[in-house]
Amino acid sequence: MSIESGFDVGDRRDFLSWVKHGLGSAALAGLMLRDNSLRAATIPGEADDLPPHHEPKAKRAIHICCCGAMSHLDTFDYKPELIRLHGKSLVADERPDVFFGQVGLLRAPDWEFHQRGESGRWVSDLFPHLGEEIDELTLIHSMYAETSNHTPATFQENTGFRLNGFPVLGSWLSYGLGAETDNLPAFVAIPDSREFPAGGSINWSNGFLPARHQGVVLRARGTPIDDLFAARPIAASQEAATRELLQTLNRRHLAEHQDADPLAARMQSYEMAARMQMAVPEVADLARETAETQSLYGLEKAETADFGRACLMARRLLERGVRFVQLFSGGTFGSPRRNWDGHEDMKLNHSQEAARIDQPVAALLKDLRRRGLLEDTLVLCTTEFGRTPFSQSADDVVGKGRDHNQHAFTVWLAGAGLKRGLSYGATDDVGYKAVENRVHWHDFHATVLHLLGIDHERLTYYHNGIRRRLTNVHGNVVREILA
């Protein structure tokens, strides 16, 4: 396999062969499909008051999701008191109600913290590369969630709701802002190369929004998209005749069913697929990047190659007009764990996951900055909740792991429209609960939308008798972090 590109040599040869022999008619069909005569009617429920609602600071965004719950106490939320009280019992009015019901003794982090950058903010040695970029980051230390259960917490992280069936942030942005290109989707999801996150495609679902706003999955390793090209070459005349017949049937069916969103979405997906046959191989061919850039992202190292490719591909997608790229660090909750869920052994678990993303994420920030993209790009890094300051073990034991903690965690943002080098909010002395300037997911989402020129109360979609929004009926923009 070519580390630089993510393609097998055979894969690339097949791609180029199909482009040469079969793409002409497909591209022509795509251009024909773009004609207004084949465009679907306006979908009932779409808002008349679409963005931008005010001058946007950001034009595009990358969202890094650390699945499994990254520990704030071992990364960005420095608690000297937790270190001092290591091995002691938590003093609380009542016994903590934690997910697995095991409340051990207080547990210091496994990594030392150091002040870094001109801002002098504390970052643990778990993130040496990202620590060098600390002055770019806007940290929110006072996040809290409504549940300590991974699946509903992840739903809320992405959709604002704990139940599935609601559109994710990327779908709302696709619906509200669209893409800046005709050749690629507005919303692209790049899963962890080891496996999909828990829930699979629910994580990039359009929910009740029109189907065209669902995220399109690209792989950072191997073939980027399944079935984008035919399994065998097709004669141009046969391809053209097939598409002409399909267009005729689709046109006839759509005329009889004006509100057929699945059909309209299917027609648009064929149109997009024809154009992506030219765009995707070029975007995914990371060998076009300089050796210095490939090394910056760690493509030559086994531990960073996968996420490095994902981050570099994300930058290339944004450069070509994709509105929102979502990167997933971590998969499901099997054994061994391939995510941030450090129940059994925090040091082993977090060391493994951080080694995969630290250099690539730092490289992404550096690369965006030197290309002038960070000025109008928003970078987000979130996790579904935090972890407990006490170990997940018997009452009188300092165990190796930490349980789920919905009461406090840290997320960070970087880029357009933010006060860089700022830490906002605070947790208590041992980092168990957010106590100062608490921030809910609705507030976080309202702030992200605001930076992209969207009033979160005005971006709505009528569904089942309700004007739905990403922020439900809640949410306040966290204006203190805005530049």
CATH fold topology: Alkaline Phosphatase, subunit A
CATH 4th-level superfamily: Alkaline Phosphatase, subunit A
What is the helix fraction of residues, given as a range? 25-40%
Number of domains: 1
Low-confidence runs? 1-5, 9-44
Count of helix runs:
11
Could you state the order of secondary-structure elements as H and E?
A: HEHEEHEHHEEHHHHEHEEEEEEEHEE
State the CATH architecture.
Answer: 3-Layer(aba) Sandwich
The CATH top-level class label: Alpha Beta
- Biggest β-sheet: count, sense, barrel? 8 strands, mixed
Number of strands: 16
Structural commentary:
There is one protein chain. This protein has a single domain, classed as Alkaline Phosphatase, subunit A. β13 and β14 form a beta hairpin. It has an 8-stranded mixed beta sheet with strand order 6-5-7-1-8-11-4-12, sandwiched between helices. A two-stranded antiparallel ribbon has the order 2-3. The chain is built from 11 helices and 16 strands. The protein is globular and about 75 Å long. It is 32% helix and 14% strand. The chain is of the alpha/beta class.
